[in-house]
Amino acid sequence: MTRIRTTTQVVVVGAGPVGLMLAGELKLGGAEVIVLEKLDAPMTESRASTLHARTMEILDSRGLLASVGKPSNDAMGHFGGLPLDLTLPSPYPGQWKVTQTRLEQILQQWAASLGADIRRGHEVTSVTAGDGGVEIHATGPEGLVRFDADYVVACDGENSTVRRLVGVDFPNSELERVMIRADVAGIQIPNRRFQRLAKGLAIAARREDGVTRVMVHEFGRTEKRGAAQASFAEVADIWMRVTGEDIRGGTPLWVNSFSDGSCQLTHYRHGRILFAGDSAHRQMPIGGQALNLGLQDAFNLGWKLALCVRGQASQELLDTYHHERHRVGESVLSNIKAQAMLLLGGPEVEALRNLIGKLIPHDDVRTDFASMISGLDIRYDVGAGAHPLLGARMPHTELTTTSGATDTATLLRGGRGVLLVFADSDDRARFEQLHAQAAPWAGQIQVVQAKPLQNELLAGGALLVRPDGYVVWSATSTDSSELTTALRRWFGAPQSQTGIGDRS
Fold it and tell me: Which CATH number fits the domain 3-49+99-172+263-344, given the four candidates 3.40.50.450, 3.10.129.10, 1.25.40.180, 3.50.50.60?
């Protein structure tokens, strides 16, 4: 049997939203990437459909929102089934409904347009890492194939083949309660938003195409099967016991179950093998956080791995992927566990639900909960400093530059970092000083002299923003002594000692 051998810099396993986002980010960073997907064609069912504010900002910073179109938006989300207003200072507050199938189409088109090599019908059968790279074997349409790569990233879901092949331990919490769901055509039932009835929890939402998604949990029911495939007969039986409604005459288009168990890898990086999305963490899909968490893993990893495989950055930069995202994953799994208790618990949790329901409307509590759910509260440890934006995402800000009007999202669309110098036009010396310091990194960052509109946090000084939109250095109007240190830490060794790159 023919064995085809291919060499590349990165192999991404899995062509779901996380793998495709990562592939696009790697190509944007100048890395060679091949995506291997065992399915011959994209899935037709849409398991997730909710995007939160931070993910929408990410898509904006890559120019992808035009492809998304005008999805429906709801300012109201929930915390464990309790209403939660998600309105926050962001251009995209609330929940945005974009089906997973549509999101995959958008990300695949984007990644392919950048040059990503996406190969469907390829099932990975072995992964062997050595000092110099990783050897991957797969079965594809043309038989056995081999790939030699510098790195492999597993984005192949909660039942990750890569994780199993390399023997990575996936610590698992005890599975207790299961919710089952189905997309059903041909039924007429009332819409329900986290309706708690005497015998269980029922959710129903009728789509524009007439299909109704039902989700149901029977109080007190515990199972050890985890997220095994459910049958429509089981969905219909439990739905009848909980709601009294008969949906057996409907046509099931998709049936699925998920548990309240959670798992997280101890390390997201194992040498030359990395994990992102559900292959790194498994959690109950409450409020769309699972999909958003995975996409943000990819957005954090892509530019770092691209710099490493191009020889521009050290392993220390790649290690920050685990340090930053593992902590975020841990936090998200914790809030999902709390929500699962509130959502799936029976009468024993009513007192707690009533208490939290009284606290949520208080503005400070609501803001904290909404920021946590939306991903806007993330703050990475990027070193010492007093600026309130240090380690946080750069907020969307309209800017006036010497080249005209722009905004922070637009400046990030090339996948490079940005050094924003908030100097008036008559303070050219300040801009030239910082521009000269950053000149050796002209290929990795652009230096922009800007005047912010209506954002007092940006008055004076300068900010260094990573390609993923997080602020990693700040300076007052007179101090810039640590800029070179920050540039080396986040963008590697200088690639150019001459030329001053872009001016905006």
Answer: 3.50.50.60
